[in-house]
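Protocol step 4 of 6: record predicted structures for both targets in the notebook before any analysis. Target 1:
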Amino acid sequence: METTVGVFVFIGILCVGYLTLKLGKLNPFDNGYYEITARFSSVEGLKPGASVDMAGVEIGTVSRINIDKEEQVAVVSLLIRRGIELTDDTIASIKTNGLIGDKFIRISSGGADQLLKAGGRITQTEPSVSLEDLISKYIFGKV
């Protein structure tokens, strides 16, 4: 009887661990992604775990956001699914889902022949638009 209970408890712990990894979007065993970086003047509202979309399809996630102390810009690390090829003239833009929704990165592919490799950098970026700045400009007549 004790062995049966122990087996069920062990299976339950495995199930909870599996659900934790799946719901947390963590997958330590999958290396189906490659990392690239992009530099933005502002990443207001963007968080690690945000999606990276191309043509409306999710192709990756934001893995981390740091600051370059020398250039005073935000450095965003992106995990892109293997098999998705980006050219070196790709444009990364920070967009918002809906009017006040979550921020995500939209990738617009370019037409160059040279591909970005793992560890590469997207050089053309567009920072997020601050809704507060737009409203204050409108209110104070600076639009």
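Target 2:
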Amino acid sequence: MAAGPPELVDCAQLSEEGAVLERVYALADLDRLKDVLTDSRGVLHARFAFSKTFSGRAGASIEIRAEPRLRCQRCMQGFVLEVGGGSAVEFSDDEAADAADAQREVYRAEGGRVSLRDLAEEEMLLALPIVPACEEPESCGNAPSLSGDPEYAEDPGAMRRPFGGLKELLKKT
């Protein structure tokens, strides 16, 4: 059986060729995402378009899309979020030295080679929300209903005073 395409690629060569590579990764195989996902089913689609930058360095535009299952921080239920993102990077052996004159984000390339899997995983981490939440609070799995709250039943526009009863509670202690 023939081996698949290499994951560790030569940035300079691909940039010279203007190569465009597409990869599909199982979310279960991306170690840095395991703590973020509630379920590791699904795939990450990644597209890498290599080119020379204005400064003459090797660079790439990276685009990703996936539908990971995350945990809503309001209701703590799992939900699927359509994620997409992209960025442009320059590759460098010495990230600190080249960052000053870089036109794009500088990505470390050990010996001029990078892992496409690592690039895609990094882009996915950047695209995920910091605090995942269901899109609509009303449809959130365990969101409390405001219709049973007497304060909202009388006047939905009324000002709520969440600490209104605190003074009375403090007197009891």
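Step 5 preliminary note on target 2. The helical segments are 11-17, 95-99, 116-127, 150-154, 166-172. The longest strand covers residues 43-52.
Proceed to step 6 after PI sign-off.
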